Amino acid sequence: MNSKNLETWIANFNGEPCGYFELLRDGKELRITLLGLTPDFIGKELGSCLIDAALEKAWNHAPQRIFLDTCSKDHPNALPSYLRHGFRIIRTEFADELRIR
Q: 59-91, pLDDT tens digit by residue?
């Protein structure tokens, strides 16, 4: 996606890419659309640092609200970590998986 309102950030640990997040600005709201660690760095307690970095970059845009999208395919520790970082659940959706033939 090519958009002046979309930012993609790559996180590094000891010079090696370990994760990323994307921020999408829409007026006074900002959405963390993607956030994740690469497989080699899961379980090394870097997820919290990645959320902190995403929030720091997000608040630099002075939004009124920050949203974070998550799904059932995220790591089992993701939602508890988001809640510890001050996020709260505002909507839950259930959908059938998209199947492409």
A: 999 999 999 988 888 888 899 999 999 999 998
Q: How wide is the angle at C-alpha 46 spanned by C-alphas 19 and 22, nearest 5°?
A: 35
CATH classification of the domain holding 28? 3.40.630.30
Beta bridge partners of 68: 32
The pTM assigned to this predicted structure is 0.85
In a domain, 44, yes or no: yes
Give the list of residues 6+ apart from residue 38 with CB closer than 8 angstroms, or none: 17, 18, 19
Q: How high is the pLDDT of residue 97?
A: 65
Residue 98 inside a domain? The answer is no
Residue-level pLDDT at 98: 62
